Amino acid sequence: METPDTGMLIRLSDSGETVANGEEDIRDRHVKDKDGEDLGKVSDLLVDATEHKVRFIEVASGGFLGIGREKTYIPVDAITAITAGEVRIDQTRSHITGSPLYDPSLVRERDTYGSILEYYGYVPYWTPGYRYPDYPNYRR
């Protein structure tokens, strides 16, 4: 059985597009782990260019004035709550620290983001039966 072409993941900031409702744009919001620990800020969104759905949030942490910042890619499936100032996820800081490195030059390689989803314990969004998280009503 063939899986549908999920298209290439692109950063929203590189796409020339924007979030239709500005209040739903979570970029620049603080990201907290399941224990309330600060993980950084949402610096961008990785969007499936074919389906126009956000698949990962790019979280930047550390550095000074944007220099030396580390970036982590977390599946949108991990989001448990969104408020005006923060995004909560269902993972711990220590688990996120050990996540696979994401190489933006490999966005065309489905195995790359498949391994990230697997690490976090989520099924790939291109598999039958996958259900996209409800927005803005993420699970609580």
Automatic annotation (TrEMBL):
Residue intervals of the PRC-barrel domain: 25-93
InterPro entries: Bac_photo_RC_H_C, PRC-brl_dom, PRC_barrel-like_sf
Signal peptide (UniProt feature, chain positions): none
Pfam families: PRC (PF05239)
Matches recorded under Gene3D superfamilies: Photosynthetic Reaction Center, subunit H, domain 2 (3.90.50.10)
Listed name of the protein: Sporulation protein YlmC with PRC-barrel domain
